[in-house]
Design goal:
Layout: H1 5-22, H2 27-36, H3 41-65, H4 71-92, H5 98-117, H6 120-123, H7 127-130, H8 135-151, H9 156-167, H10 172-196, H11 202-246, H12 249-259
Helix pairs in contact: 1-2, 1-11, 2-3, 3-10, 3-11, 4-8, 4-10, 5-11, 8-9, 8-10, 9-10, 10-11
Length: 260
């Protein structure tokens, strides 16, 4: 590759790491980039996990240093996700993702309106929400979210945030900290599966990771300093754009203008 491609990869990685740490779905930027560079979809999916792993190491460390992340809470909700991610990553080596993209896009639209209609549940959980769901139900939910994360990764942050806010009663800042830690827990297993199938480009993966780590560092500090209200705005924007992309709206618009 030409030299100027590497700074471009790092720049996209920075944006993705920032978005991933504050909301989610940064992989909707990095996966198309990796495929544009000539990587097959499965290899792009596997290569992206290097950046995700290192990004969340930085993000989790930053949230821990700022006293937002409690490891016991992260492990309690993260272990079911780890189990689910192993199954999801095994499915992903032969993935056909379009049908799932439509389902996820539809769910994101629903989540978008839930955040608008009841913003207080996402920023200041009340007493009725602090108890969260029953433990066995949380295990099932985070297992399924982990399975999706192992499968495709893109958009998993949104569903982790929904589970942590609506299911466990955390505000958006703390939910982001636990979300980052949960993804850190299950990503190594998913990465190993892709490595075993020869579906990782290490050079591009580590170059991308430089940007993701820088973005995660900045994102974690912004989340704590600026608080839940700012995080909610970023979350709404990320969900809105991601749902349009997953539902194929951007492709439809491009086709209309291209036909014209």
């Amino acid at each position: 590759m030409d030299w100027y491609i590497y700074p471009a990869i790092i720049m996209v990685g920075f944006i993705a790491g920032f978005i991933n740490t504050l909301a989610g779905s940064g992989s909707l930027l990095t996966l198309p980039l990796l495929m544009f560079l000539g990587l097959p979809a499965n290899v792009a999916n596997g290569t992206n996990r290097i950046a995700i792993l290192l990004q969340n190491m930085v993000g989790a460390a930053s949230f821990k240093k700022q006293k937002v992340l409690k490891l016991d809470e992260g492990f309690r909700l993260g272990l079911p996700a780890v189990a689910g991610s192993l199954l999801g990553s095994l499915l992903a080596v032969n993935l056909n993702e379009r049908g799932m993209e439509l389902v996820i896009g539809t769910l994101l639209v629903i989540m978008f309106f839930l955040i608008i209609i009841k913003p207080e549940r996402w920023m200041n959980p009340g007493e009725e929400n602090t108890g969260g769901m029953k433990s066995w139900l949380q295990v099932i939910i985070f297992f399924l979210i982990g399975m999706y994360g192992g499968f495709i990764q893109a958009g998993v942050g949104f569903f982790l945030l929904a589970g942590l806010v609506l299911g466990s009663g955390f505000d958006l800042v703390k939910s982001n900290a636990i979300k980052v830690f949960i993804i850190l827990l299950y990503t190594p297993l998913a990465l190993v599966v892709f490595m075993a199938h020869g579906q990782v480009n290490y050079l591009i993966g580590f170059v991308l990771a430089i940007g993701n780590m820088l973005g995660a560092f900045v994102g974690a500090r912004v989340a704590v300093s600026w608080g839940p209200r700012f995080v909610r705005i970023i979350l709404l924007l990320a969900i809105f754009v991601s749902s349009l992309k997953l539902l194929g709206v951007f492709g439809l618009i491009a086709g209309l203008f291209g036909g014209a």
